Amino acid sequence: MTRRPGIDEVAALAGVSKSTVSRVLNGAPHVSTRTREAVRRAVIQLGYAPNQAARSLAGHRANAIALVVSETTGRVLADPFVAGVMRGVHAELAGRRTQLVLMMSRPGDVGSYLTGGHVDGALVISMHGHDPLLSLLHDNGLPVVAGGRPLAGGPVPYVDSDNFTGAVDATRHLISLGCGRIATIAGPTDMAVGLDRLSGWRRAMSGRRTDLVAHGDFTAQGGASAMTSLLTREPELDAVFVAADIMALGALQVLNAHGRRVPEDVAVVGFDDSVPAVPPLTTVRQDVERFGRMLMWRLLAEIEGEEGLPPSVLLPTSLVLRTSA
Amino acid sequence: MTRRPGIDEVAALAGVSKSTVSRVLNGAPHVSTRTREAVRRAVIQLGYAPNQAARSLAGHRANAIALVVSETTGRVLADPFVAGVMRGVHAELAGRRTQLVLMMSRPGDVGSYLTGGHVDGALVISMHGHDPLLSLLHDNGLPVVAGGRPLAGGPVPYVDSDNFTGAVDATRHLISLGCGRIATIAGPTDMAVGLDRLSGWRRAMSGRRTDLVAHGDFTAQGGASAMTSLLTREPELDAVFVAADIMALGALQVLNAHGRRVPEDVAVVGFDDSVPAVPPLTTVRQDVERFGRMLMWRLLAEIEGEEGLPPSVLLPTSLVLRTSA
DNA sequence: AAAACTTCTGGGAGCGCTCCCAGATTCCGC
DNA sequence: GCGGAATCTGGGAGCGCTCCCAGAAGTTTT
């Protein structure tokens, strides 16, 4: 294996200076077509690939973007949501010479790395509670976009699904089905996504009984416990809006164990459209890949310093009717 | 926001040369304790963080490792297996100054990037068929470890779960239950994991009827189709070993639709221990996080040029008894 | 007590690019 | 034609580190 060629070799072969090669490589203006072509040929002939480290060093740019997933959320990576977002993020990056660096934040240790100039921007997803990471990064001048509305508010732009409206739609569907005792299994109260979906349910339920609320932690296990508690409090309930498909799975299991038929005895609507279930789950779909693309697009715009961008973006959701409700 | 401090500032503050600071930073020998401490203090006081680009450039090291997921597998990222592996990989990297760069390979475009010297090594997971990427990287002298046995064989070391033995255990369990007509929903034939689990089933079934095989593509959808086909071919089947939990979900759905009770009429065993199901699935568990840690450990050893390493590692699996069989 | 090491430290030459500056060439309009 | 602008190109100074080399200080050997 011979040494990889450098920019000077390309320059020599093309019969130009390395400045010119650099211009061609970076698509700078003021290069004649003849020269440009000569350089292109030389690049291909030598199989030249620019050295990222040198580019970063000389160009004061890292050519890398961090995708931060908070590790306290542990299994969150297994979440189809996160996976889909990753795909979208990656797709939006295609064609750029930018690397995606994956980080799992143990609170504290990530901040200094990120503000240390190793990345040009950061995408922070699945935040819990009032994680100070966002403001830390923002205050250090690093372009940041949050995936999901930050509970703490603040100046950081974010992209989120319209959880509120999705929940309203789901609940209204349950109402239109003629259900009278509609419960909800809500998400944790320290995440905006949990809160927003609960608010949507409350909104749609206005004028009705809204005490049938149980909280789960976005796991099947949590959904099961919540369902059990709900069933104890109100054995006659005939519908439940579950704030996440994965929790719906647990709920379905409990409903089944208690001899309730779905949807005959109890109608169930989930959220996410992320898991296959028996019976097929009526749910609120969010386009996670689009979510990811939008996130990345927004961050790139932020990095390039575009003006007049909307502070945040809400992506629409849609109700998918299947057999559980 | 003031400029980040450089190594010279640290050196000045500590009253030593930047060579010495570099030594301390890299844990090189021949530095007196006094000096070392002085440098440490200066680093903390200035909040100094070394510039990765400069280190890479000067040190002929990228300080980055690529995690390559083949994109043709599309939704593979959503796979709890991949997610778990990522967590493990990340955990093993903790404490090192090495970045994890996530790449999704569209066949072809990743190779040149990786061999271009941007990373010190690569982890390639969820390969399909005879993807030439592995040998391409290996031939270029890049340290590589595969997650999952490469179907094509070859000299690349790999880490895998003992899929064969896991399948044998699962099938034997079905036999010990007294089941007489045992089918299997196998994975795709272009992935070693699919093949190995099928071989395990065949091995355990030796002396019995082994024609009840249907293939799925590791999706719930695929599992459902396979189950339907199986039921058509042998309505009397009383057990099925499904090569992936996610396919078992689809199978369960079909079984349910056809009025078969699980486990009374048909016993079901899955593989992965990755999804919650109704009824709770008896399955073969693999410790995915350990898988990831092992992968990374192996790659780091490879990069450091350790000798006498086993070419590959097989991780044990265990049967988890729940109610589906 | 001198020689021969060993341990510690500083100096400085790059690593392979980008980007600023200045010079050369071409293109206009009057 | 000629001045001035626009277009094109090369030279070279860094970017912030690592690592080699050589010298200073301290230790052991003969």
UniProtKB/TrEMBL annotation, chains A, B:
Coiled-coil regions, chain positions: none
**UniProt keywords, alphabetically:** DNA-binding, Transcription, Transcription regulation
Organism, per UniProt?
Lentzea miocenica
Question: From which domain of life does this come?
Answer: Bacteria
Q: SUPFAM superfamilies of this UniProt entry?
A: lambda repressor-like DNA-binding domains, Periplasmic binding protein-like I
Q: Does the keyword Transcription regulation apply?
A: yes
What the entry lists under InterPro entries is as follows:
HTH_LacI, LacI/GalR-like_sensor, Lambda_DNA-bd_dom_sf, Peripla_BP_I
Write down a Pfam family by its short name. Answer: LacI
Name of the protein: LacI family DNA-binding transcriptional regulator
PANTHER family registered for this protein in UniProt? HTH-TYPE TRANSCRIPTIONAL REGULATOR GALS (PTHR30146:SF109), LACI-RELATED TRANSCRIPTIONAL REPRESSOR (PTHR30146)
Ranges where the HTH lacI-type domain occurs: 5-59
A single Gene Ontology MF term assigned here is: DNA binding
